[in-house]
Each structure stands twice: as C-alpha cells, then as structure tokens.
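User: structure tokens for this one?
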Amino acid sequence: MVRKWSGLGLLAVAGLLASCGGGSGSDGGGVAGGAAVCPAVNTTTARSAAVNLLSGTVAQAESMQQTAGSTASPLQPRPALRVLARAIALGDVSQAKVAAVKPLVAQMGVPRQIGLPRDVAATSTLASTAALLQWQATAAGGQVAAISIQSGQAVGLRLGVLVKSLPASATLRVYAQGAATAYSIPAQDVLNTLARNRAAGDTSDAGRTYWAPVVDGTEATLEIELPPQVSTAGVEIAIPRVSHLFSSPLSVAKAGNTAKAGFSGASSCEVDVACSPSYATESNAVARMGFVDGAAGSFLCTGTLVNDATGSGTPYFLGANHCINTQAEASTLQTWWFYRASTCGASTQDAAATTRTGGATLLYASQSTDTSFMRLADTPPTGAVFAGWSVAAPRLGDAAATLHHPQGDWQAISTGVIQSYLSCTALTAATLNFSCTPSNQANGNFVNAQFSSGATEEGSSGSPLFETIGSGHYLVGQLYGGSSSCSPNDRSGSNAYGRFDVAYNAALRQWLAPGTAGCN
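Assistant:
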C-alpha cells in the first residue's frame, strides 16, 4: 500500500442529553458502520459557546490527568527456566533492499519507515513450525517451547505470528536470547487482537497475524508456555514473516553520552520539549507510535491520547490516517510514553519512559482530514494525560505548537502561529505526495501552521497541533504533511494539519461527546 507522510474531566459547557448512536464512519480506507445522527456544531460560534456555556453544545473539553493508569510494564523478568529454542538464521538482508527503502524516508509523502519485511521459509506453514517446536516440561507441570529467528544486520525485529489456534490459557513471551526480561503476553490478548481484525471484516492471513512487540538486536525469540493439562495440539501457529528493522526505536535511548542523545536523527533546530514547561501537561498526552504494514514494513508516527467530554478515561487515541487506516494496522500498534529528555538539554532519558503493546480498535479513518481515531487496548501508563480539545474553528494568527517525535527521536516541540486555512487533496499512488491550496474557514479541511521555532519531519506525522485559547492549550488538528525546515534564512515552510473540528462534526463527536443535544 502507498504510505503517505505529512509531515481534566471537566466540561467547558453543560447540557448533555440523550446518547448519540454507535458505529463508526469513514470516507476513505477506514472502518465503516452505522452513522450517528448528530447535528453539526457551528464551529464559527463554538469559540463563544466555550465561554458562554451554551446549553446542549459541547465546544471544548479540558485536559485530564490519568490517575488510575497501569504501572506494570509489559516487560517482565524471564522465568528461571531457560528454554531450548530452535534457531533459524536468515542471513544478512540485501543492502540493495535497504537502500531502496531508505530514500523514501527522506521524501515528503511517507511516514518514518524503520523496517522491511522478510519471509521466513522454515516457519512459513503450520506443519513446519510445529515440527520445530520442542516441548519441554516446566516445574509447574506444564509445557514450553521456543523458536529463535535471527536476521543478519538487523537492529531490531518484530515477529509476525500467524495463528490458526492457540489455547487461551497459554502465555507468550518475546525476548532476545540472553536478555533478562521478556514481553509477557497472555494468549487471550493475542486472540482478542485477532478477533478485532475479524470483526472489521479482515479474514485474510494479515488479519490472522499477531505482530509481536519490538525486540532490540538481530535476534528475537518466541516462547509459548502451556499450563498443566493443556495439550500442545491446540497450538497451531506459523511465523511466515518478520519485520527487519534497520533503524531501531530503542537505540536512541541508549545513546546517553552526547549533548543531544535523544535527537540523533532529528534536524538541528528541533527543540527539546523538556525546555518548554508551559507544555508539560500536553507532553504527557503525546506518544510515539510504532506499527506494521505486513506488506511494506515497520513505521513510526506520533499520536495523542484524547479526553472525552465526560472525562470517562476511555483511552481514545488520535493519529493520522496516512499512518494507520486499517484495523490490521491498528492491531500492531505499540506506543512509547514520556519518551523525552529527563530535563531541558539532558542527555539522559526521562525515567518514566515506558511502552505499551496490545494495539487498538480503529473507530474512524478519513482521508478528507487525514484522521485516524482509535481506542487503545491497553491502559495508558499512570501520569499520562488525556488532551483537551476545541471544536471552534482554529483562529488565524493564534499561537500554536506541535509536540512530536521527529525521525522517531525524543519528543520535541515546534512553536509558531496558525497562518491560513487549506484545502488538501488525498495522496495518490503515482505521486506519493499531496496538494494543498489556500482556502477559507468554511471550506478548508486543513490549517497551515508556520513555525518560528523547530520544524516537522518524518516521524512527526499525526502529531497534535495545540492552539492557545485563553490560558490553555487545546488540540485542534493532527499533522498531515509539510515543508518546514531548519533553514535560518527561510522559516516560511508550511505544515498542514487536518482540522479536528471538521472530523468532530463528521464522526468523532459520537465518541467524544455522547449525549449532546440533538443526537439520536
């Protein structure tokens, strides 16, 4: 598929009434479903509505701190028993293949690609994989087996596990040989992930494939443990493909010995978010995203945890349609939180940095505003913030900022103003880019932000645009693409953000403001 780059709980109003209907909406590549009947919010008057508390209209929501989040990391100490794993070596990847992919990383119109697919012939079928699983007894009376796959010159791997059947009581572990920790994944979570794909209508092999979390290095091991009395005959899996990472999302955190350790790939003008304390709350809402398109490879983007009007704590997550627009892709989502410098200018990573796996349910995807709207499967970590938003039309000239992960590096902040409204057309397979023309508030589906500090890059795709309204910062869009750069002689580059208010009226309000007046 073509990859396209762009580049708390308190309501501001009152008067919630009957619930909007369920379902999801899409106008290009997203999840389809029954549409709720909700009259559109007048985004011209919504700004005054947010101040005057017009009855029955939700115009904005405030940010909310996550207080009941999960403190448990998916990485757990490995059991004392070291399982004998059957080893498969794929050899070195063709550098011609890597070279063919890497130029795309620098082109407008694609997200940050960090990996490419590799077929694994030895485990391509259920039968061949079963023959390699050497079951061993555990101290608890169960059985365990493992397969290790090595991909030459990789800096990281994700294993694609095709599942025909798997006992719900099993436990999967994914790790590097010699590592002290492993991702511990209940088999029921894997089954739930694949069930979401089926519910979205995907019965293909891609829909039956579970993509394991990122393992650093050239090798990754899949271990399967069964409890007592559970037959190995119930394990019918294959590993027909892996994602070979040529740029590791984990490697930046290891730098730690340079002045800009976490910005090893980003441009020189990017600004450490820790140097902007006025955006500390919003920083906790922004996560780096990793995901897999099984046919194309692994990618990085940026996304935002979003509050709803009732402050329910539902983990709604906003990103870019050009990053994730199918349920199969949403199911591969891995997020990294608090991935930033510990303090302004520090070469050490924030001690709170953590990851979450488990994917997401894709609720809505739209090319018209480049919106991808999901519900995370895992609980966000304690300390995460549900970002506040406004459905007032963004006001030209207002101060604005974007928080993002340029090149997948530590979180950065770019600041400037909302300059103009834009009408942008969808990407095409022929050009790998998009076209935007000047527009107005009534017709523009995007806004252009111009930054006087910082820029946007690959990896920034999907990052939130926060408009300063009064003393607060409110989400008003997510990054589609741009031409901003670090050139001191030219800060006129554009950055197109899909308008949140337009997407809200199109579909998002049925999740973010259920019960608003006029919905049925």
